[in-house]
């Protein structure tokens, strides 16, 4: 059992992580996972969760928390009429299929492998948003099927491996095909619902029977952490939505890019 002081810091870190992740869920449409996963990884290490399952539990728990957060963010954005509902309807099957593939990978991949995936994708997306070169655009509008369905499955797979709600990938996809960043952010909240629900089920299955899991865990999902963090994310998500609609396109791109690079740096340090 770690010292009481360390447990207190663990609890405080969860409070901060929950508040910030809820705000970011509304601001960027990312579900908050990009900040929850690195914080959970460090905090689970503090309380003695073995390295072999620590990253898996961090990712699985993040996806469980994203379920209510993404639903609340999606409803708030939908109320403002900013969500591309046609795209979401076309991805109802494609995105969960990608999540199922990710669940199969999670059952075999190492902790370092998950961290590497997270950090590398974060760097690419962060640089893209910071530079924002117009010649990076791939078209004036989103491609049709079957390419659109394939992209949805790919976003679902990578997001489930990273423990995020899909916003970091969907934002890039939509903006590179000429969609406004505010619409991309709003739609990403809906994508988060399509990823987090099957992702939660997949991580429970992938971690079923594993040894070394923290108390109150089902598979790779720790319900004690979920119970502590969810109330804070639900409270703070609408604040992020309001901030998103008050910012300019370029301000959101710069903020998002810096955020992703900071997250990537944290994971590369953990791999050293």
UniProtKB/TrEMBL annotation:
Membrane-spanning segments: 12-41, 53-71, 91-109, 151-173, 185-208, 220-241, 253-271
Principal localisation: membrane
Keywords carried by this UniProt record: Cell membrane, Membrane, Transmembrane, Transmembrane helix
Compartments where located: Cell membrane; Membrane
Keyword Glycoprotein: no
Annotated membrane topology: Multi-pass membrane protein
Keyword Transmembrane helix among UniProt keywords: yes
One Gene Ontology cellular component: plasma membrane
InterPro entries registered for this protein in UniProt: TM_pro_TauE-like
Listed PANTHER family: MEMBRANE TRANSPORTER PROTEIN HI_0806-RELATED (PTHR43483)
Protein family (similarity comment): Belongs to the 4-toluene sulfonate uptake permease (TSUP) (TC 2.A.102) family.
Protein name, UniProt field: Probable membrane transporter protein
Native source organism of the sequence: Pseudohoeflea suaedae
